[in-house]
Give the backbone structure.
Amino acid sequence: MPTNLPAEAESKWKEVTQARDPKLKLKLLEEFLSLVPKHKGTAKLCAKVKRQMALLRREIEERKRKKVTSSPPKFYVEREGVAQVAIVGLTNSGRSSLLSSLTNAKVKVSDVPFTTIMPRPGVLKYEDVSFQLVETPPIFEGISSRKGFGSQTMNLIRNADGLIVMIDLSKNPLEQIELIASELERSQIRIEKPRCIIRLERRKGLEQVRVNVKGSLLDCTVNDVIKLLNRRGIRNAYLEIEGKATLKEIEESISANFKYLPSLILANKYDLQGASENYLKLKSWLENRGLSLLPISCKTGYNLDRIGRELFKMFKIIRVYCKEPNEEEASPEPFIMREEATISDLARQIHSDFIKKFSYAKVWSNRLKFSPQRVGLNFKLEDGDIVEIRLKS
């Protein structure tokens, strides 16, 4: 979004991003468009808004034409575990077989196309971490234009934390991955890792904006980023910047509807004749696209035991175990954090008062020369660390 928009337009755009009802969103977009100055610098923005308005009008008309004979199917899935992972793919790619093999979910596995019409969840256990897997209805050409339950399916996918993309190696793998990526892109979902990833979390416990740069800012400072957020009315939030980012990219990421979802590509039916050649074609296509690839067979179980570890790596998470002062053993339930997290991040996650009252921390780890080691708030944590936080009396 251009940086020179009037404050009224920026405020109206904030209302647009929070609206969920199509009629209300359309009304707010019309109001937003009327507030945007018409010149060369805003031409692309105006065109994008008009396209979005056209899609909303089509959706509203489709809803009017449909006769509702029963309550709509429930596509929302209550979250469970450290991350929700949507299993996507074309029909008969092995989504149901995967869910059945990895979880205790009751799944109907069939060769009949489009067997799955409703989302089905299950839980995958990896050591002491749980991932929620959700099988989605199949992707097909045109699903992004809201055919069938396309709108609900894409919303379900968009709300996930990451994706497992199933590819059937008995068929052309490039046609499948290109179709899936294209339909997701049309629904403003990206699976290829961008140059920079911006994560914004609004937190009531924070007294101000906190910015964590895991990379570099190319044309601005942290103070510039904080000022940008404050201009948009964002004052209690945690912003994480991964990679190299400009101020414009940060602003566009906050304003845009596009969402990046880390994705694991599973090449299924690796046991079939000719599958290895198709696997190599897929591997070549995926090079330099920031996507992980794993050959599997739901039929024979090949490599299924590696999926939990791959998801753990994909989400870049670490487990930190806390110990109460004077207790011998740490809690068996870990705090789940992102890589590069510090004692400060852990203290905030435990309780907002821990930063104010913090005195020092002890860390037990095999990587340390002396364990336990006394550390401060900026100490970086790693997977498996045991931490004891001491507070001022």
